[in-house]
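Figure caption, in words: inputs first, then the predicted bound structure.
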Amino acid sequence: MEPRDLSAHIAYQAGRGIEEVARELDMDPDDLVKLASNENPFGPSPAAVEAIRNAAGNASSYPKASHTDLTARLAERWNVTPEQMWLANGGDGALDYLSRAMLDPGDAVLVPTPGFAYYGMSARYHHGEVNEYHLSPDDGFALTAETVLSDYDGERIVYLTSPHNPSGGRFSLDAVAEIAEETGDDTLVLVDEAYGEYADAPSAISLLSERDDSDASPDVSGNRTERDDIAVLRTFSKAYGLAGVRLGYAVVPEEWADAYARVNTPFAASELACRGGLAALTDDEHVEKSVETARWAREYIYDNLDAPTWEAHGNLVLADVGDGEASAVADAVQERGVILRDCTSFGLPNCVRITCGTKEETRRAVRELNEVLSS
Ligand SMILES: Cc1ncc(COP(=O)(O)O)c(C=O)c1O
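Bound structure (pyridoxal-5'-phosphate present):
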């Protein structure tokens, strides 16, 4: 007995956890700072914690009302119909639903490299092929329509990450619209806005939802027609601080939104996740604090780190620590108690990625990194 041929599949490499590193280095976990997985340093909103605690007693029942309520709440928020809101077990789960809905065996997808590994993994699970478009440090990992379209060859799904992980850059809405316009009728442009709350920019959801003029943003030029070939991914894992409960969603065009019923895992998001998500949506202050602090941290890192960085729009900053040095630098900083992301697995052996922490955590990360770089 063997599983199917999985030789083309790669295992997801997550950022290292505090417990794991503490054990390895024989350190007290409380002395470690983890800035490796783009989590929210403030944790979840207290309102979400309370809602999850209250929901614990209902954990024996399948989630029904909470799933419906959260779907309705998000649909209202984004000015789309509830059918367009595909709740999932994290953004990753939403990526899987879109793969299930779109890919026939042998269909290809186009993913950014460097980029978020799960796009290709999900496509392969669904018997898809993976092609890449290349982002280069030489032009600041520029996210333009031309970069994507020059490598486009009729793929079924084109993934755009905005803000991008790990570079931090973003696509303009004009670029997204141009890519959708220039790609074939059967190509879905999937805009991953996992870090969307941190970007001072409108969501691509505006390209597929009804908008009144007051929603139009400065970089949305002219009147766009609604598109049926763009979907947008969002998550509660980052600005809402709920990575541990696994809650995300895709917003899809109305025309084919009913596919959800045929591809979703029954009870796609858990009772605890839905209750936590509903409560988190009531706490704007928590999101604002998270976003503001990330903005401060990005500036602090640009200004104080003794290494070149790229302008970022998420809760992360990519830094160039020297040719082939990323692993050694990340290890040395880790021994000093700060866990950063070695970007060698992204194909960037000269880069580390620093998640924006609290002010204290960010200052410590920069201090330790500078010490290591100077030694
Ligand atoms: C670009 C990007 N997309 C999607 C995700 C998935 O997030 P989650 O499954 O936690 O919602 C991540 C997680 O780090 C990410 O970096």
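The mean pLDDT is 93.
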